[in-house]
């Protein structure tokens, strides 16, 4: 981190989003995600997705405004911590990056987005789903996946189908609480009763007290708004306590890591994820082959990080500029067919249309149950 900080401080002396290396432009793009801590597997997944896009663009040969260009990806670690996220964001701003792919979490993307907006730097998150992220009115904030308003509606309606007594737990992060709020609203509208609403943290590993209290309410469904490091021990502790309620969650637990951490107790768990299943994405099969050959198993968001880079660079090409002030207008009106599907943004920077897929663990694998398409908001 010290070495990285020194390098970026020196880079900050340059006041342009690209530097000259002979006759070649070097375009600096930031990538921010948790690269240490319990969510590092997801963070590295995002970074590798972005890195694959950068490597392909550089290998094919990139030209901006008639000049040969090469992209340099500056990967930073925000440790899924909001305060660290703002420090990292300022570091990238001082380095005069042309844009930022990130952050991974809603809780880090939201505070960082204010800094990027003030600096006029484009931010595209591959994975932040909280409604608030794009509801702040920052013209520089975009995302390439469905938001929690859409995902929460699907989950809440599905929870009500599974049973009329629903208990909800969230991890108090912007993502977990925001998704849980949307689930509660949709489940109630669909006729379900919320028999318990409990809270934990994104650092906790012992949920015995919460689960014991919920067990007495006899829920049909327990929904958890949070990430896989908490979801996996939670489902294991549910089984030990003899709780038979259906365990339901969002994209934070719909990961390969959850399967490994939860083991046999993962069987039957249901979770959603924005977007199509990888096998049904327009470029999913080819992406999976390239990514797994180079980086191994895809956790969840790598295809979105890949598309975020591609759509950002495409906007630069159309604007003939790497200056965010110039290419921002092209990004806002982009119509781009990516690995994950067609990418167009609404006035807030959200996808103009969204897709949510529900999965269930069967035989130790996440198997698609159904895909729900939703129109623009």
UniProtKB/TrEMBL annotation:
Domain (Leucine-binding protein) ranges: 27-365
InterPro entries xref list: Leu-bd, Leu_Ile_Val-bd, Peripla_BP_I
SUPFAM superfamilies: Periplasmic binding protein-like I
Keywords, ordered alphabetically: Amino-acid transport, Signal, Transport
CDD domains referenced in this protein's UniProt entry, alphabetically: PBP1_ABC_LIVBP-like (cd06342)
The organism's place on the tree of life at top rank: Bacteria
Pfam families from the UniProt entry: Peripla_BP_6 (PF13458)
UniProt keyword Hydrolase, yes or no: no
Homology family: Belongs to the leucine-binding protein family.
Entry protein name: Branched-chain amino acid ABC transporter substrate-binding protein
Lineage: Bacteria, Pseudomonadati, Pseudomonadota, Betaproteobacteria, Burkholderiales
